[in-house]
Design a protein that fits this description.
heterodimer; A: 306 residues; alpha/beta; TIM Barrel; eight-stranded parallel sheet; four-stranded antiparallel sheet; 8 helices; globular; B: 266 residues; seven-stranded mixed sheet; 6 helices; 21% helix; binds flavin-adenine dinucleotide; binds flavin mononucleotide; binds FE2/S2 (inorganic) cluster
Chain lengths: 306, 266
């Protein structure tokens, strides 16, 4: 074990033992990866996006590989908050690792009820609000593409819970810093970015979309430069911690995000490619600090020289 | 059955028919838990493209006196991942995760079973036949039909024969065996003999037809299905298959890949 370096980071009120979290929707409810990862070593576990009621998700095919990445249109299939708390949380509560509940709804009221439900639950350290989902009131346009709508939503969630709230930002916007500033003003304790970038793929022989949903979200190495640029912009625009997500496959990728200003990172698609990716990234961060004679990972956060 | 990840040494990677390979991997920990119908996720590319692992059924165990030391995969080259695999040589290493998924339920020795494989779909069925024959101490009551496009694509015949099962062979072009669909002799057999269990793996159109035959004659039927998969272990929810219950999806990697045909909308 590499105990001589300090990987601890602060995400507002939450102190993580290291900056490596799992990205929502890529790590199941945690237990799926127990054969491959020592879950107690992770900085935090962010679980699959939860809704008030169980949700069946989209028809197949739901995923397709594209150049250096993948498209998914899972449709936010999940077991619902009640089954999560009853059936999955007890396993997670036995771990040392903080659990972050990613939530989504179709109306502000659904988000409010989710926040209120989680507020009283032991063993959930924080709430991550996914604002990339369609807002039924606004004709299916995502909550996360309009600063005023996003701020309303986050303010409503904020009033329903005392737990730390992180807001997961959508990259499918013209100016992500405007959304980031709005949700921080509305009470977000931190922001995580980016969610997937909307895309599509076509089977030219059948002249049909490769996903039943036609469009899907792009993830993996293909989106890393975009994610990194957005993290850098947002880290300069807001004064709350930023969590970097998008195409992180190894420790070097994670370091890029930390240097750009992220206080922590989330690892997504990499878990599919290498189920032990998160642990290998944690080890790689320690190695980097040792190699460059630094004692704390905090020394590199936002240390970009321009 | 606890899955693990191994850097497996390639023992052999032989082209047994045009574009069809048998790949032997030294992977004792994976072999220890493997049963018929389970699968492994192979990283074909080291660190480059393609990005995602590819799923393959376990075709058989590589057994030595000390026990199972590895697994065999039977695969067909269809795209970049399988092309990368085909380019590997003995002594190279492949990153493999497994065993994964729920396999076939073995019929009781007294039950008469018929095994139907289409093309590369025989891959999990040879392993199944081996276990069935071992369980009943002989090939009695085990029938196999294998079909393919043409003679070159007919797989598994020698392996079934070695177990004492003489498979009925069909090809689309008549270059080997009967010129018809694999489901034609299968349908005839089911009609005449009314077996207790049908096992099938192959293209979806074939599985649909097999499932209809079995349901018409009220025979239990287990099918192994293919879907796109990203993780293979229940985390991504990308491998959904439609069930007969409206609005309910099953997941090929954790609920399957082997399902009772009656649960699926094929
Ligand atoms: C549980 C399971 C077991 C399998 N067992 C075997 C096996 O034993 N032997 C074998 O040869 N193949 C098997 N397959 C299929 C195998 O996974 C695909 O052929 C492989 O992923 C193709 O990868 P590629 O990069 O070469 O081609 P890709 O570029 O990924 O695909 C080439 C073409 O094949 C189609 N395709 C890709 N993956 C699948 C899939 N999973 N199902 C249906 N069509 C697909 C694509 O749409 C495309 O048209 C199995 C699949 C599953 C889900
Ligand atoms: C299969 C899949 C499912 C996802 N599900 C969710 C989800 O439920 N909620 C959410 O906020 N993000 C979800 N995401 C987005 C990821 O958390 C992450 O933001 C994105 O994939 C970019 O990171 P990556 O390139 O490391 O995968 C999902 C991504 C994938 C690939
Ligand atoms: S392949 Fe990821 S859940 Fe089945």
């Amino acid at each position: 074990m590499r105990q001589d370096v300090d990987l601890r980071v602060d995400i507002g009120r939450l102190t993580l033992r290291n900056p490596v979290m799992t990205a929502s929707g890529t790590f199941g409810y945690g237990g799926e990866y127990a054969p491959f990862v020592d879950l107690d070593r992770l900085g935090a576990i962010v679980v699959k996006g939860l809704s008030l009621q169980p949700s069946a998700g989209n028809p197949p095919p739901r995923i397709v590989e594209t150049a250096c990445g993948m498209l998914n249109a899972i449709g936010l299939e999940n077991i619902g908050i009640e089954d999560f708390v009853r059936k999955r949380l007890p396993f997670l509560q036995r771990l040392q690792t903080p659990v972050i509940a990613n939530v989504y709804g179709k109306t502000v009221n659904e988000y409010e009820r989710l926040a209120a439900r989680i507020d009283g639950v032991d063993g959930i350290a924080a709430i991550e609000v996914n604002i990339s989902c369609p807002n039924v009131r606004a004709g299916g346009m995502a909550f996360g593409v309009d600063a005023a709508v996003a701020a309303d939503l986050v303010g409503a969630v904020r009033r329903r819970t005392a737990k730390p709230v992180t807001v997961k930002l959508s990259p499918n916007v013209t100016d992500i810093t405007a959304i980031a500033k709005a949700v921080v003003a509305a009470g977000a304790d931190s922001v995580s970015l980016i969610n997937t970038i909307t895309g599509m793929a076509i089977d030219v022989r059948k002249r049909r979309p490769r996903l039943a949903n036609i469009t899907g979200g792009l993830s993996g190495p293909a989106i890393k430069p975009v994610a990194l640029r957005m993290v850098w912009e947002v880290a300069r625009a807001v004064d709350v911690p930023v969590i970097g997500v998008g195409g992180i496959m190894n420790a070097e990728d994670a370091l890029e995000f930390l240097i750009a200003g992220a206080s922590a990172v989330q690892v997504g698609t990499a878990n599919f490619v290498n189920p032990a990716a998160t642990e290998e990234i944690i080890d790689g961060l320690s190695d980097y600090l040792l190699k460059f004679g630094m004692r704390s990972i905090r020394e590199i956060i936002g240390s970009l020289e321009t | 059955m606890r899955a693990c990840r191994q850097e497996a040494e390639i023992l052999w990677n032989r082209e047994i028919a045009p574009g069809r390979y048998r790949l032997g991997l030294e992977a004792p920990a994976i072999a220890a838990g493997a049963n018929p119908g389970c699968f492994v996720m192979v990283r074909a590319s080291g660190t480059g493209a393609p990005l995602l692992r590819r799923p393959f059924s376990v075709y058989g165990l590589i057994e030595e006196r000390s026990g199972a030391i590895g697994i065999e995969i039977l695969y067909r080259v269809v795209g970049p991942g399988t092309a990368r695999m085909a380019a590997c040589a003995g002594g190279d290493r492949l990153d493999v995760v497994g065993p994964l998924g729920r396999g076939f339920r073995l019929a009781e020795p007294s039950e008469r079973v018929v095994i139907a494989g289409g093309g590369i779909g025989v891959a999990p069925l040879v392993f199944l036949a081996r276990r069935l024959v071992r369980k009943r101490g002989g090939a009695e009551g085990v029938v196999a039909v294998v079909g393919a496009g043409c003679e070159n694509e007919v797989l598994g015949v020698d392996e079934f024969r070695a177990l004492g099962i003489e498979p009925v062979v069909t090809t689309d072009d008549g270059s080997c065996g009967l010129q018809c669909r694999v489901t034609d002799p299968l349908g005839g057999y089911i009609e005449r003999q009314c077996p207790d269990m049908v096992y099938a793996c192959g293209p979806t159109a074939m599985l649909r037809c097999v499932a209809q035959l079995a349901s018409k004659h009220r025979i239990a039927c287990q099918v192994s299905v293919e879907t796109m998969m990203a993780c293979g272990m229940g985390a991504c929810l990308g491998c959904a298959v439609e069930s007969t219950e409206p609005g309910v999806y099953l997941h090929a990697c954790t609920d399957g890949p082997v399902f009772d045909a009656g649960r699926l909308r094929l």
